[in-house]
What we know:
The structure is a homodimer. Chain A is built from eleven helices and no strands. The first copy, chain A, is mostly helical. In chain A, helix 5 packs across helix 6.
Amino acid sequence: MSSQALFRDRSKGLPKRDRTRLALIDSTVEVIAQKGMDLAKISDITEHAGLANGTFYNHFADKDEILTEAAQRIAVEMAREIDNEMRTVDSAVARMVTATTRAIRMAVSESAWGAVIIGALQHLPSVRGDILQFLKADLQRGIDQDLFDIELDEFFLDQIASLLAASIRTQIDTGPDPVKTARTCENILRLCGFTRAKAQKAVAAHTPE
Amino acid sequence: MSSQALFRDRSKGLPKRDRTRLALIDSTVEVIAQKGMDLAKISDITEHAGLANGTFYNHFADKDEILTEAAQRIAVEMAREIDNEMRTVDSAVARMVTATTRAIRMAVSESAWGAVIIGALQHLPSVRGDILQFLKADLQRGIDQDLFDIELDEFFLDQIASLLAASIRTQIDTGPDPVKTARTCENILRLCGFTRAKAQKAVAAHTPE
DNA sequence: CTCATTTTTGAGAGTTCTCTCATTTATGGA
DNA sequence: TCCATAAATGAGAGAACTCTCAAAAATGAG
C-alpha cells in the first residue's frame, strides 16, 4: 500500500513537467514528516528533491499551494484505501471502527502521512473540509441505521476529528500503540451514544486484522 | 475578573524592572490574540508595548521564554479563578461541568486568553503538562467518588484536552455559543462513562449562572 | 539526429527578523 | 535635589528565507 515516494513512483511514463512536479510533492511530504508543516521551507523541499531552488517556482506559486496539493493527494489516497477495504462492510459501527483504525495505522506507520494530515487539519481549511466530509458519510449512515444517537453537525465533526488527531499526534510521538487506537475508536463510539461496554465490544468485534 | 492589561495593572508599586517585564507579558498576550503564537514576532511585542526593540532582551532571552511565562501566568490565573468558584463544590461531576464551562467562557470571551491557551497546548509542553495536571485532579476525584468509569492516564487526558481545545478554537472563530459549550461538557462526561441522557441531565443541573 | 521548445539552474536582489551594544535616559535611595 | 546605578534606546550587523531572471541544459516530436 504505502511507499517512500508514492507519487514519483507512479510518474514513470509521464512528461518531464509532471515528473518534476510529483517529485516536488513527494519531497514536500517527506520534509513535512521531518520538520512539520510550519517549519518546512521551500529550500528544504527543493534540496531534498535534488533540484535547484528556482525549479520550485516553475511549478507552484508559493508554499501554500504545494502544501495544499500534497495534503489533498495524501487525503485522497488514504480515503481510497479505506473505502476499498470497506466495500463490503454495511454496518456503520463496523465502518467507523474500520475507518478509524485504518486511518490511525496509516497515519502512524507511514508517519509522513500522519504529519501531513495533522498539519492539514490545522492549517488547510479546504483539505480539512474534505476530511470532515469523509467522516460525515459513515456517521450519517449510523443515523440512518438507527445506531448512532447524535446531532450530526459541523461541531460534532470537529469534536470527533479532534479525538482522531490527538491520537495520531501522540502515536507519531511515542510510537504505534494498538491499545491507544482501540481506545480512540471506543471514545468516538461513546460520543455516538455507546456505553463503555458496548463500545468496547464493538471495537473488539470490528477491529480489522 | 478579566481585563485588557491584567499583569500591568497589578504592577503599580513595583520597581521599574518588574513593570516593564509585566508590560511585555501583557503585550505578548495581546499580540498572540491578534496573530497567533506562531506569527507573533518579538518586534510586534515591543512595538505593541510602546517600547524599543532592544528592551525585550533586557528581560527575556528569546521568544520561547516570554511565551512560556505568559502562558504559564494565564493558565495559573484561569486555574485560580476556576478553583475559587469551585471551593464549595464537592461532586466531581459538578466540578467537571463548572470547570469546563468556565474555562471555555474565559478562553472565548477574553479571546486573548484562549489564543494563548490553545497555543500553549500545541507548542509549550511544560504549560501543557500543568493544564493536564489540573484536569487530572477532578477526574481522579470522580474515580474516588465512583462516578467516572475511566482509565485515567496520559492518553485519556490528551483526549479530553483535545475536545476542550477544539471547542475553544471553534468558538474563538465563530463567536461564543453556550450550546457548544454545553455539548463539550456532555462529550467529556460521555468519555467518563455517562450515557447521553445522564450527561445532558448533569450538564443542565450543574452549568453555572 | 536535429532543433525549436520546454525546463532547470543558481547567483543574487530583496525582505523580514533576531539579537547586540555603545549611548542616552530614567530611577529611586540618601 | 543629587547622582550612582539600572534600564531603555535604536541603528545596524547578520542570519535566514523567498522569489526573479538571464543563461544553460534537457526534452521529445518529426
